[in-house]
Amino acid sequence: MGMSSPTTREETAMAEAWLSTVEKRTEFFTSDQIDASARRTKFVQRTSKITGKLFLALVTFGRWSTPKTTVAQLGAKAAQLDGPVDFTPAALQQRMTERAVAFLREVLQLAFVQLHAVGTVCEDGLFAAFGRVHLVDSTGFGLPESLAAEFPGAGGSGSKAGAKIQLVWDYKSQTFEHFALIPWHVPDNKYVDTVVALAQPHSLFLFDLGYFKLAAFATIAAAQAYFLSRVNHQTTLREVSGGRTQRLDLPQCLGHDSRALLEKAVLLGTHDQVAARLIAVRMPEAIVNERRRQARAVAKQRGYTPSQAHLTLLGWNLFVTNVPATVWPPQTVGIVYSFRWQVELVFKAWKSGLHLATLTSTTKHSTLCYLYGRMLLIVLTFALCPSLRAAAWQKQQREVSLLKLVRHFQASADQWFQALFQSGAQLARFLARACAAAERLVTKEVRKRPTSAQSVRKGVGSQVDFFEPVLALAA
Fold this sequence. Notes:
By secondary structure, the protein is an alpha+beta fold. It has 20 helices and ten strands. Among the domains are: about 10-55 and about 85-115, no CATH class; about 125-285 and about 315-345, Transposase Inhibitor Protein From Tn5, Chain A, domain 1. Helix 2 packs across helix 7 (about 100-115), helix 7 packs parallel to helix 15 and helix 18 runs antiparallel to helix 19 (about 425-440). The termini are far apart.
């Protein structure tokens, strides 16, 4: 008789919690509220072979395994269901209308609210003092010109139509706090006004430089919340010392300082000033030389010479934050900021795993149906992460790879599509197999150097931990 490896009660409970999470999230796609939404948006007005549930399943699971799936291929998948549904490709194409877009948009809003389970997964380390940790970023992609009126591009020689997804991700609960599809031409430092409305006492915002805006920082501080951002080199700084302030010539200050780490109390701006800590971290020579090479190349292309002051500042990573030094000593700020790159990994999973920008049509409504279908898959896969992440860390001390998770379920997406229209027992068996395999296959490889998440859990780090990771994001 063969012997199975021992499993603790705790491990069994974690596995059951992970499977339960997947089952509950999958129920969303088969619930009666989907067809109710289809009727409410008038996507379905009378008895039809293409119901709200079927259409939703086709544009999500039906297209997951192969992004360039045609309407004819979607029809073939529907014909293979238990109790087959037969319709022509033209019939499905004709259903991709403004009402279909409204239906999918409403379902996305429902999914955003209902699929995320709030549960703290990062309770200690450098984020212990904060109720929420908002990682803020956006990702953009071109669209067919037929969408230029609704989604204007960046202008100039770029695409005439384009979109951005604005994301605010709370790391501590592993949930999306804000998730919006907007026109490409809206700059991040304008959209940040919408983002900071989420500010609550003791919450923390980690911003990319594109969101740098003093009024936004002031709003956050007024809400008794906190921010951490890179510094815009054009910002006026006033040093606070001994109760007095004076303008800080940062290039001159750093150019004559031999230290690897520097901190100053400053006021940001000229009029409505924001109090903050300025932390300067000297970069290794190789990184500095590459930064300056790129700056000179861009300047030459645009017909100007970079200033010596700008070249001096490129030798440093410059941060501003209103988090007290008692919470974050200056040497830990770099490792905390490096955690913002977790969002870039999320975007990589979206683009290379879910093929967010792999558009299959040039028509407006078909393209929007594809995008909303992709966004629904984004919400679904991310909603599956907290339980799996907790199980993997508890059992293996390993981090979950979102990209591996996406690709794991992508490989079985056609089976998932079929199972949605089978009996509850058959669906449960399929999910049990998929989840059991996921626990083995979707963790990150063990690294000699700790990941950012591991460093945050341990609450350790130094100024040399933060360099600039280069991610090869899919176009």
